[in-house]
Structure formats: C-alpha cells, structure tokens
Amino acid sequence: MLRFILGCAFASISSSYNLPNHQPTIEDQFTIPAILSSNKDVQTHGSGVLQLPVKVHNVQLQTLTSGEMRKRQSIDPLANVINGYTIDISLGSPNQKVTVIMDTGSSELWVDPNCTNSYSSSQCASFGIYIPSHSSTFQDLGTKFAIQYGTGSVNGEYFTDNLNMGGSPNGIGAARIKAQQFGVANTSSYTTLGIMGVGFGYQLDTNYYNIIDQLYVQGVTNSRAFSLDLASIDVSQGSIIFGGIDTMKYIGALEKRPIIPYRRAPDRYPRYWIYMTSAGVTTPGSSSSAPVTGAGYNQAIFPDSGSTLSQLPTALFNSLLAYFPDAVSQGGGAYTVPCSYRTQAGTIDFGFGNTTIHVSYHEWFWYDGQSCWFGAQSTQSTFLLGDSFIRSAYIVYDQDNSNVLLAQAANCGTNILAISTGVNAVPSVTGGCTVSSTSSFAKATTSSKS
User: Which domain of life does the protein's organism represent (predicted)?
Assistant: First the structure.
C-alpha cells in the first residue's frame, strides 16, 4: 500500500497516502497458505528465525542545507521532518548494500530513489544504490511500476535478483532469497530511501511472492509471521523477527485480535486491520484511565510502522486532545504541545479486547528537534496506529492465521522462540517482563478483564 508518504516511506506524519493500483484476486486470505505450501521448494532450515535490527532514521530541519530546505517546503508542517525505521539489505551477486524503510503498511520492495530529486541528495546518497549490470544474477522483467504519493512519486521497472538479509552482530540468522522480485526506480521525487513492505503479498496485494512469502517458500521461516519491537523513542534501534517472537520484550499475554477480512475493512483493502475496543487517558497522579469511548466501541484501525504519528477518527482525536488544552493547531490536523508534557507520568491508553496498551506521554508526544507534536492527527479515513503507538506495543503479525497479537512492550533481556505452523503457530507464552523492568515513564501495565 505505500499510502501516506511521510506517513509511509519516511513516516513523516503527513496524512497524504496513496494506494497502489493492486486489487485483491481472491476472496479471503485464509486460502493463501495452501497455495504457498504447494510451492514451498525446501523444508525450513536452521532455527526458522531471522532477526534483523531496525534502526531509527531521523532527519531534522537543522541538518539540511538551505537548498534542501527549499525542496522540502510543504503546506503540511509535518512534512518538514522525516522519521522512520530502516533495514539494511544486500542485492545481487556480488552483494550491493542498500538501506530501505521498513513498512508494515505496504507490500512491495523498491530501491534506488533519484537522489537529485530528493529533499536531501547528500542523505540519499548515503543509503546505497543497486546497479543491475553489476550483478551476475539479475533479470529485468520488462514490467513497469509506478506509485504516486501525497508527497513524491516513483516510477521504474521490476527486476529479480538474489537478496541477502541478516548476518549482523545485532541479529540472529541470515537469509539468502533467490530471485526476489522488486522495483528499481528510474525516476522519483522527494524520497531519499526505497521501501521494504512487509504487508500481505501473493494474490492479495501482489501477483508475485513478496518478502514475507519468499521467506516462507524458500525455507527461512515456518510460516508467514513476524514480530516487531521498535523499542523506546530514546533507543536507536529495535528489531524485527521473521518467524519468531522475543518473550523478554513484553509484559503479560499476547492478545490475539483477528484481522478484519479486507472486504469488510473500511477501505476494502488487504491490511492488518483490527478492531480497537477502547481509548482513554491516565492523567499524571491518577491511578486509573479516564475513558473517552463508550461501551461497545469498535474502531477498525491498523498498526503501521511507516507512519510516525497515528491517524485517528476526528471524534476520538478531539476527545483525547481535550486533555491538553494548550495544544496549538499547526494545520493539516496536527497539533504541537508544550514539551514539558514529555516529562509527566501520564499515559494515552488503547484497548484491544482484554488488553490495554499504555503509551507514556514521553513516547506519545514526539519531539522533532524543535517542537513537540501530539502523537496523532485527525483524519476522516485510513485510520492507523503509527510509531507513536507502536513503540509501546509488542506486535506479532500472523498472516497465515489472519491475526495480529499485541502486548505491552518492555525490555528485560532476550528469549527468542520460533513461530511454528498451524492455528496456534505463535507461541502462547506470557511475557517475561514486569512493570518494574520498563522505563519509569512507561507506566507499562497489561490489564485483564478476566
């Protein structure tokens, strides 16, 4: 989907996403595993787990030249700072290292943005480039692709080549995917990095095996599932674990929430749509959350690592914002607040069935180097939970069983378990962390109604 560019790709909080022109070709994702299983050419080898570091990519205004600043002029004030999470990959034979934005809100991989037309040519050049002719294993498929964003665009051709991931001291395992299909940009505007989408692939959002599909088909993982831990806003990197979970990165049980079939989703598009069942605010000094939603609340929403801020329905947004009367509108549904809020021990609370994810003020109010922003924007459509929420949640994306599982994020060590196959593929293991093992700002608790 590559929908909101500084909302997707650089996760700049812009709400101007644009959908690619893929249409689902089957009724329902539950039939996909059988199709992929019949094409799986090898058994899972090794541990079935691939852990990769995801690194914070944060560009602030003061780091750009005056010329680059002019390129970035926008009516959206939040298009003036770029923030996201990146992964290093290598393409071709021999390897050509490229850094890409990791995006749970899209499904395709593309590389080589046009640095001359980007907002920062110097930044862009530092992320590496893939040159097909320098590889002995590339194939030009002769098929064009084009994606138009709210801010920026990309056009190019599809290629296949070998793709390597992992093998770093900060990860576990390594993967070599043969003949992965991806886009190589011929022209692009604004963007400085390519994007690796980890959303639904074959027969839902693509007509070829995307990264998640290939990791399964080529025997790297047992199933099409992965977990994401972005870590605290004060930490330079988190991790994504394809085919596994880390039980020392969350508190309590993983809450299993069924993914809404795309034909019943708000935009009728295959994403990680789930229902959020409550929202509230725990003000500093209070021992309980003040709800801003009523009984029976069910809001379709999806967690999207490609957006810095969350995008909330207007009514919910206004109810949360009312707790911060000194917030100042900056246009585009975005608000700044006094940075003093970030040191207060309050939380914004989001409920999913029996589990509530508490997002500390420190994590929710985003500091861009100059101003502090309320962690969401108001929108009339495409409701999502961006990095302002995801940093406080440990999330497992289980495509094979069409579930998203969530728990309160924490960090008390490492204990990685493989995700297997079948209905209960994701290990049902209570997190090893307790409230005291988290940051003093987090007030991280997992509440249960049972």
Answer: Eukaryota
Count Cβ atoms below 10 Å from residue 34 Cβ, excluding itself. Answer: 8
The first and second tokens of residue 142, run together, are: 């002769």
Q: Please classify residue 65 by burial: count the beta carbons closer than 10 Å to its beta carbon, then call 0-12 exposed, 13-18 middle and 19+ buried.
A: exposed
Tokens (6 digits) for 214: 């290939």
pLDDT tens-digit readout, 277-324: 999 999 999 999 999 999 999 999 999 998 889 999 999 999 999 999
Structural domains present in the chain? 5-229 (2.40.70.10), 248-437 (2.40.70.10)
φ/ψ (deg, to 5) at 383: -80, 130
Neighbours of 99 (CB within 10 A): 18
**Amino acid sitting at position 129:** I
Amino acid sitting at position 233: I
Residues 29 and 402 sit within 8 Å (Cβ to Cβ):
yes
* pTM assigned to the model: 0.87
- Paired tokens of 443: 């007030």
Segment holding 71, helix H or strand E: helix 66-71
pLDDT, tens digit, 9 for 90 and up, residues 43-85: 777 789 999 999 887 654 334 343 432 333 333 444 434 567 8
Active site residues: 103, 304
Radius of gyration of the chain (CA): 21
